[in-house]
Write a sequence for this structure.
């Protein structure tokens, strides 16, 4: 910054723009040198698309009801038979996906235990529908 004293005796400050112009020119030269180097492409391999047979298979519908009972595809399954029923139901699904509907006000530990059981049965993906039990849907 420079200060120039005027004839009236008051101080007048002017910004020295020379360093700003120097930096701008250096950056301009850097960008001019770097741009030809940035035009080089990189080889990227992508996964090949799998041919599909039209539609994706539907996920297995699992529901944890308000009373604590579990249904698989709309069929009520007793707790003792649940692991075997899950394994046999998922065996017929190609993508091994499951959709879990959880009724309102179910204990957290009950939900996590059911999620662990579903994972151990061999699902690849689990989607959650919270608070939308089939008992309440129109």
């Amino acid at each position: 910054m420079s200060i120039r004293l005027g004839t009236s005796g008051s101080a007048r400050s002017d910004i020295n723009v020379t360093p700003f112009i120097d930096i701008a020119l250096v950056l301009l030269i850097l960008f001019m040198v770097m741009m030809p180097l940035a035009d080089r492409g990189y080889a990227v391999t992508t996964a090949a698309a799998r041919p599909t047979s039209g539609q994706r298979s539907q996920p297995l519908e699992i529901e944890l009801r308000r009373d604590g009972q579990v249904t698989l595809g709309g069929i009520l399954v007793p707790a003792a038979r649940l692991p075997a029923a899950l394994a046999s139901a998922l065996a017929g699904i190609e993508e091994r996906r499951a959709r879990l509907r959880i009724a309102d006000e179910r204990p957290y530990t009950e939900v996590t235990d059911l999620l662990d059981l579903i994972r151990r049965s061999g699902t690849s993906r689990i989607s959650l529908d919270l608070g939308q039990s089939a008992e309440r849907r129109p």
Q: What stands out?
A: Helices lie at 18-38, 82-91, 108-120. The chain has three helices and seven strands. The first strand starts at residue 2 and ends at 5.
